[in-house]
Amino acid sequence: MRNKHTIRDAVVIFGVFFALIATVAVLYIAVDVPNVSSIGDRQITQSMKIYDRTGKVLLWDINQGEKRTHIALADMSPNIRNATVAIEDSNFYKHGGFSITAIFRALIIDLLAGDLAQGGSTITQQLVKRALLVPDKTFTRKIKEVVVAIKLERVYSKDKILELYLNEIHYGTRSYGIESAAQTYFGKSARDITLSESAYLAAIPNAPTRLSPYGNHRDELDARKNLVLTRMADLGYISSSEKDVAQKEVVTFLPPQKIGILAPHFVMYVREQLSDRFGEENIERLGLSVITTLDADLQKDGEEVVKNFGGSNEKNFKASNAALVAVSAEDGGILTMVGSRDFFDLEHEGNFNVTLANRQPGSAMKPVVYAAAFTKGYTPETVVFDLSTDFAPKSDQEYRPVDFDGKTRGPVSLKTALAQSLNIPSVKVLYLTGMDTALTLARKMGITSLGDPSRYGLSLVLGGGEVSPLELTGAYSVFASGGIKHPVHAIERITNTAGEDIFTYEDTPETILDTHVVSAISNILSDHNARMPVFAANSPMNYNGRPVAVKTGTTNDYRDAWAVGYTTKIAVGTWVGNNNNTPMEKQVAGYIVAPLWRAFMDKAIARLPLEPFPAYQKTINEKPVLNGVWLGSRVFGESPNQYIPVDVHDILHWVDKDNPTGSIPTYPANDPQYDSWEGPVRSWALQQSLPSTIPYASPTTLSAPQVNIGDIVIQNTSLLVTYTISPETPISSVDIFIDGDFYRKDTSPQSTLTLPKNLFSQDTTHTIRLSFLTERGENISAEKVIATSE
Question: Which residues, listed in sequence order, are joined to residue 429 by a DSSP beta bridge?
């Protein structure tokens, strides 16, 4: 059957080919050569315009300020002539206007693909296509292109055709022709450009938007420049040693000129999409109007914030660049995109758009992994042990992550672990969740850049993979929208010169996360009390209980600092660092980037209404460890409402990680991580004189204890604060707040706390707040208003 199809396809291809030859012969007689004398004077009148989301603010008129300067071939460096021929049409001086081999090869590929994707064009054909014919993709126009190219070669010399071509083609950045390109990129005439500069200029026309030296694909431009030099050496235009020197030469481009453009990083991002959709030659001619998703007011706010903090961060933290992106939680539209401090600042590589670059996110990746864990059955109350642990027990090299402060905390709830960004518990959470489960959710939320998980393993949760700020912010927008993914996009509508819509974006919302999971994540990331004392009470992330969620991330080597957060209307991601990936000062993201994030979020909140997140409702599970009870066993006492905690184990003793809500594993030690987790727990338990025999309520009646602050006694120099907890519950620590400010932590609290009297002003009222962490990992608190006087 396959042979029959192969024969049939071959017959079709050869039939079309011979029909093509016949058509060319007929058209050769009928078609006249267009007047090429007007090529240099041709003006593009149908310019494409890019607007903001309202369709009223013009961000960029693509052909405004177009630059053209016609020069003779004799005034061009031989390097550019040879480089162009080498990469575009090595047989230019041999063929008669077209290459039958190239056309036949392109025809076969196009027929099999069902599209006219392959060009197979000579330099002569490209000149005809660009300057003399309408740029549509039809077989008829392709045939006419060949015919006109043949006749053009009969009328004009090869050098004249090459001269016309080099004066006509687009080199990006609104430069048409080699002289304009040489002046734009190097500030010199085309006669003076070097071999390496010529190779760069010859490389750009293949994809002027994508290969722009001012864009995000400089590595691709460098690779094509090297290919040009290799082809020149292969064809004998230069020697092998000249090629090697030119490939190693560091070429400096002039900074981009400040032209009439708003939101330049965003506009270039949109232009690249338009080029992919319509073709580079068409976006300059079709006169389309493009309505984007950009909020011009928020964009202006973002640019001001990034520029202001960019300067101070360079001075204070040796962080020369910053970036910000905002995504609508309601439809996934990009509202703001600021790729650097200043697009036109070449010293800091301002044209590079960091929002599209893959960087390590540090702990900003943790919420995605915790969401996967909650989806699997773990809960914010679930307890794991924060103890030094080797997660590669069977490897020659141990993997023993540490928390940011080098301390360990014993049993902690997953809420505490995420809120305080604890690394050891988070690695345990990823193991319990499973790499495949976490990566699957990440991809569903829009993070597609994470590749082979074996490259980073369990370090993924600590930011071991690389993602772009746009991707990660888009993923956070899923939390913001209540678990619904709206694909991130930049273009809403495209209309033609007649005002007709030729493209309209259609949202395709998809439910990714259950509301219970989203409410758990939002509850944790918006609870500043849960973040303390790791983050100070006056941290930029503290919104005093208002529905604003945020997570920071800092890489271990201090090369990247992130803050990503959201309301129900908008997700905002910010990044601070250096484009060359050099380290900053050793400070956490809370100091480096959180102030920048807060400054912009305040402006966004002023423009967009604040709405509450879905309320988190705690659920009661059959397993005590999932409810926050880490002292426990499967042996219940005589009363049905009690069980006897006779032993201490880490969570792998009580759950099958792949089915956490299922039966307790019969042989938990079969888990490959069991011994490496259990050993530190047993050592810790012995140090704490455990196991304890304090009875706890069973899961069916489990409820959080209540705190009551009693009388406050004022003595000569002190205030005595008494409290009770009902039912009586072992306490790990208490954080003391006075008028909302963190005062101190007591790790062995007594039932009466002593506070210095001089902390309180006379003849006024003050609020005392006590926040307790129980040994079961619960957070409970109470506050009381007192009046002080002599």
Answer: none
Residues 241 and 172 reside in one and the same domain = yes
When pLDDT is averaged across residues 72-96 and rounded to a whole number, the result is 92
Q: Which two tokens stand for residue 274?
A: 């338009």
What is the average pLDDT across 618-629?
A: 83
Closest among 595, 602, 554 to 310, alpha carbons compared: 595
Q: Show the tokens assigned to 291.
A: 């309505």
| Spatial contact of 467 and 449, defined as CB atoms under 8 Å apart | yes
Structurally, the chain folds into a number of domains equal to: 3
In a domain, 15, yes or no: yes
The Cα–Cα gap between 696 and 89 comes to 82
Domain end marker among 226, 255, 284: 255
Q: What is the pLDDT of residue 19?
A: 55
Neighbour tally for 783: CB within 10 Å: 13
In this structure, the answer to whether residues 723 and 686 fall within a common structural domain is: no
Do 689 and 730 share a domain, yes or no?
no
CA angle 116, 279, 143 (to 5 degrees): 40
Q: Which domain holds residue 715?
A: 704-788
Query: Residues 417, 534: contact at Cβ < 8 Å?
Result: no
Which of the listed residues 255, 270, 303 is the one where a domain comes to its end? Answer: 255
Element holding 602 (H helix, E strand): helix 594-607
Least Cα distance to 271 among 258, 260, 282 occurs for: 282
> Residues 681, 768: one domain?
no
Q: Would you call 538 exposed, middle or buried from its count of C-beta atoms within 10 A (0-12, 13-18, 19+)?
A: exposed
Helices (H), 318-380: 366-376
Q: Which two tokens stand for residue 346?
A: 């070449």
Task: Based on the fold, state whether residues 695 and 709 are members of the same structural domain.
Answer: no
pLDDT tens for each residue of 104-134: 555 555 555 444 444 558 988 888 887 766 5
User: Which of 174-183, 357-366, 455-464 has the highest average model confidence (pLDDT)?
Assistant: 357-366
pTM of the model: 0.75
**How far apart, in Å, are the Cα atoms of 630 and each of 372, 541, 704?**
22, 30, 14
**Short-list 467, 469, 418, CA closest to 443:** 467
CA distance 357 to 336: 16
What's the rounded Cα separation, in Å, for the pair 637 and 616?
32
Dihedral angle over CA of 253, 254, 255, 257, nearest 10: -130
State how far the Cα of 322 lies from the Cα of 390, in Å rounded to an integer.
35
Structure tokens belonging to residue 702 = 């489990």
**690 and 727 inside one domain:** no
- Residues 519-532, buried b or exposed e (16+ Cβ, 10 A)? bbbbbbbbbbbbbb
Does the residue 274 lie in any domain? no
Paired with 746 in beta bridges are 734
| Two tokens, residue 558 | 């201090």
User: How many angstroms separate the CA atoms of 151 and 130, rounded?
Assistant: 16
Whether the Cβ atoms of residue 743 and residue 705 lie closer than 8 Å to each other? no
In a domain, 210, yes or no: yes
Shared domain for 194 and 78, answered yes or no, is yes
Q: In the chain, pLDDT over 90 holds for what percent of residues?
A: 47
The CATH number for 717's domain is 2.60.40.10
Can you list the positions of beta strands (E) in 645-740?
696-697, 706-714, 718-726, 731-738
CB 754, CB 718: distance < 8 Å: yes
- If phi > 0 it is left, if psi is from -120 to 50 it is alpha, else beta; for residue 560 that is beta
Residues 641, 725, single domain; the answer is no
- Yes or no: say if 652 and 668 are a contact pair by the CB < 8 Å rule: yes
Q: Please tell me what DSSP assigns to residue 501.
A: E
Residue 787: CB partners within 8 Å, gap ≥ 6? 764, 765, 766
List of residues 6+ apart from 34 with CB closer than 8 A: 132, 133, 148
Interval 223-249: pLDDT, tens: 999 999 999 999 999 999 999 999 999
**How many residues are present in the chain?**
790
Q: Which helix (H) or strand (E) holds 746?
A: strand 741-746
In-domain check, residue 561: no
Helical H segments across 318-434, by residue range: 366-376, 414-419, 423-433
